[in-house]
Design brief:
Number of strands: 14
Largest sheet: 8 strands, mixed
CATH class of the largest domain: Alpha Beta
Strand content: 15-25%
Number of helices: 20
CATH architecture of the largest domain: 3-Layer(aba) Sandwich
Shape: globular
Length: 439
Amino acid sequence: MVDAGYGIMKILWFTNMPFPAMLGIEDRLHAASGGWMTALLQSLSEEPQAEICVACVAPRLAEAELVSDRGVRFHAISRGGLPQRLRLRNPDNNSRYLDACVRLVERVRPDIIHVHGSERLYGLLGARSLVSAPVVVSLQGLLHDYARWRHYFGVAPLRDILADQCRLNLLQGRGSLVEYWKFLGSARREMRILEGNRYFMGRTIWDRAHIEAVNPRSRYFHVNEILRPAFYRRQWSVQSCRRHRVLFTNANTYRRGAEVLIDAVSILRREFSDIQLALAGGIERSSYGKRLLRRISERGLLQSVEFLGCLNEDQMSDALCTAHAFVIPSLIENSPNSLCEAQLIGVPCVASYVGGIPTLVEEGRTGLLFPPGDAPVLADRLKTIFRDDRLGESLATQARETARRRHDPKSVTRTVLETYELIINDAASTTRRSGNIRS
């Protein structure tokens, strides 16, 4: 497939989190975050021309190399010592990890390096020209925009944020302000990654616009994602859902806008006394989670909110099928896979008009949109779905058809391999031109 004189394409992935094989657990029990990478890896591993290695800096895992039954090699990089293992120091700020990544590249000798996400240190391999193989960074979120105060904290009063940052939290390196300070450091590193690399994969108008603004010389490739298998198998119907039940996931940060949704549910309860808000994902009893629980209590919604905890893909697909609507009230997002999974199952979706979401949701056709932070309009959008089953079914059908095309595994796999090939050949051509100029 590749025009560079060899039949096998050697691909090295760097990922933000360990894969299930590195943790010794089943794929189906893998945490929700990063599930699209597991799905893509499985599909790529079935391609005869792809030879894949996966690496991750994981201080709490033992240094190891594992080989899966599909022939994929997994490398756990762990050289940070006690401070990293105890999470007292960010491993992405430790140059020894970057050096270890360079040594791994030299040992594997890949044709292309795929860095999943701009959040961690791996993108510096290309930005600093530490490796000879071409590096492509696939964009997930964009920290430099997420780090804006209005996105990170929303409209939370400063006194509440300061109250959360108690002395004990400060000593423990925790609390909202400490986390924000760390986040700003990661955003500065990300900017160096975005400015210094040439090749990027993305999925939305928003991430493409930001890359072109930050790095005009970059090459951007539109590549969609494969979702977890359970969401292709299930289908929502208004007849089998629990009416007036609203589902939301990952509410544990200001950025996700959970307080807006809670206020909207409070408004809706005047008309729909049986309304239920189901929150999937862990909710801490300190920091922002404590603020969220207080908001629920103040709105008199203790009996109207159900905490589902962390769900695997089968449990999450069940939760989507039983919901009357799925909501993303975030203050900023790029392409949340929770929204894509909801669309794939076909549950009616309501989402804030922010970031890359308008690329995923066509107003009135594949979902409904509302201004970020506007609880009354969110309540009105949900009310429309509750009252109009024909609209709900239409949104569900159109979203599911669109999502099935967008996340078709064969199409995505083909696009990924074609993108790898284009990048390898472009990088080789650039190298040849540079050599001719020097000679």
